[in-house]
Amino acid sequence: MDFSSDTAAPAHPAVIEALARVNEGNQPSYGNDSVTGDLRASLARVLETDDFDYWLCASGTASNALALSCLCPPTGAVLCHEEAHIARDERGAPEFFSGGGKLQLLGGDGAQIDEAVLREALARIDPGFVHETPAQVLSLTNLTENGTAYPVEQIRHYASLAHEAGLSVHLDGARLANALVHTGATAAEMSWKAGVDVLSLGLTKTGAIGCEIIILFGQTRSKFAELKARAKRSGHMPPKMRYLAAQAIAMFEGDLWLSLAATANQRARQVSDALCRHSGTLLVHPVHGNEIFARMDDGLASSLREAGATFYPWPGGSYRLVTGWNTPETVIDTIGSL
Ligand SMILES: *Cc1c(COP(=O)(O)O)cnc(C)c1O
Questions:
Q1: Which of 45, 71, 114, 204 has a 20 to 30 Å separation from 17 between CA atoms?
Q2: 42 and 178 both lie in a single domain
Q3: Is there a single domain that holds both residue 266 and residue 221?
Q4: Cα–Cα distance between 29 and 75 in angstroms, integer?
Q5: Are residues 42 and 95 in the same domain?
């Protein structure tokens, strides 16, 4: 009954077993080991391309901030939703890592950027006008911060609008697996095939210990040396990188990451159905992934807590409940019996 966050969940046993398997003998450091090398083949299969470079770090904040710092100069701006994790939950890391690049916040329902708002922001860009900070990157999030999924067509459409205006496209995929399961899109379709230049692919929330992959596609591979330099400078060059790579290989093996996300998504739907059977429950956003945003009456919220559930109140008077790969099916009956 822990619905506080998917980061509260333990790692999947396959990840722990993979760590034990690579815990053998000496290996070169700083990403030059054979396990980090082997990850290329796993990623090539998952991403259906060889045209990428990758880097591993232990938190999504580092992954986003490093990725964006390679795309946005100190004098530029990143367009993102006003509720984006990079804007609300990273303590200024994107601005810090880019040396002063700004975030330009855009509105839209369900933490999804509204198309008219995006078009207006893109039309305003005038790099020749020295007083304003020109946007150089569009950052999208999937799943979004409201637990909804952008369909792949919309990512593709927004990426093409951004590219036409000369911007690069970053995708924050801290919960990418949940969005892929919901939409039925492949990781390739949701990333480079849709025009994403740089992907922050998260595996921590899905079931790893701490494993986030920055992936530079196509032309942005020219930034790889800079990415590594920035990773080193900011303290995100794990000396024993094989242990991060082993987590990723285990998660991609047999598409474990997608089946774990499928379980988490299914539990979220079941929990939200069970909550909605209690009168007074109202979903604030549709449940596409593993997050539920709901208004509940006080009685239900306190009976849930008395039954041992943990979850957070959310701004605007609702609650957020998050499921994970290990949320047991028994919670549904427990919620039903309240
Ligand atoms: C959780 C999350 C991150 C990464 O957060 P860390 O706590 O730094 O790992 C990034 N983006 C989104 C949308 C998230 O939900």
A1: 45
A2: yes
A3: no
A4: 35
A5: yes
The answer on 213 and 87 residing in a single domain is yes
Q: What residue's CA is closest to ligand 1, atom 15?
A: 174
**Atom 3 in ligand 1: residue holding the nearest Cα:** 60
How far apart are the CA of 131 and the centre of ligand 1, in A? 32
Q: Do 17 and 80 fall into the same domain?
A: yes
Q: Does 33 map to a domain?
A: yes
Residues 273 and 170 in one domain: no
Read off the tokens for 72.
């946005």
Among the candidates 227, 254, 281, a domain finishes at: 254
In ligand 1, the atom with minimum distance to the C-alpha of 141 is 13
Task: List, edge to edge, every strand of the sheet that includes 198-202.
Answer: 52-57, 212-217, 198-202, 168-173, 135-141, 77-81, 102-106
How many domains does the chain fold into? Answer: 2
Domain of 75, in residue numbers: 12-254
H helices present in the chain, as ranges = 13-22, 34-47, 60-71, 85-88, 93-97, 115-124, 152-164, 176-183, 187-190, 224-233, 242-252, 256-276, 298-306, 330-336
Residue to mutate, 80, 144, 172, ligand 1, most ligand atoms under 8 Å from C-beta: 172
**Which residues have CB under 6 Å of ligand 1?**
59-61, 64, 85, 141, 145, 172, 174, 204
Q: For every one of its 338 residues, what pLDDT tens digit does the chain have, with 9 covering 90 and above?
A: 999 999 999 999 999 999 999 999 999 999 999 999 999 999 999 999 999 999 999 999 999 999 999 999 999 999 999 999 999 999 999 999 999 999 999 999 989 999 999 999 999 999 899 999 999 999 999 999 999 999 999 999 999 999 999 999 999 999 999 999 999 999 999 999 999 999 999 999 999 999 999 999 999 999 999 999 999 999 999 999 999 999 999 999 999 999 999 999 999 999 999 999 999 999 999 999 999 999 999 999 999 999 999 999 999 899 999 999 999 999 999 999 99
CA of 68 to the centre of ligand 1 (A): 14
Final residue belonging to a domain, choices 232, 254, 276: 254
pTM above 0.70, yes or no: yes
